[in-house]
Amino acid sequence: MGCILVIVALAVPRLLMFLAFLLTDWFGRAFETRLWPLMGFLFMPYTTLAYVAAMLNNNHALSNGWLMLFIAAIIVDVSHWGGGGDAYRRKAQRAR
Length: 96
Description:
This protein is mainly α. It has helices at 2-11, 13-23, 26-30, 35-43, 45-57, 64-95.
């Protein structure tokens, strides 16, 4: 079951976040408010999932390997933003 969740999280993180919100209390245990998970859903889904995993599996501490996972998730989320703009610029240059 755990491997399936990892594969789904990597492929479609927002779907996993939605299902986890509906079917579990993970977000309620990891966050004190509903604002941060909502912002994470909209802007940084990989980072939000990494944070939830760290909080639930490491006694509410972000350290060691969990910190590395969290930093890697930030890099992946931020790279998605830049990649979209770069593809748009290349497409616009070809149209000229």
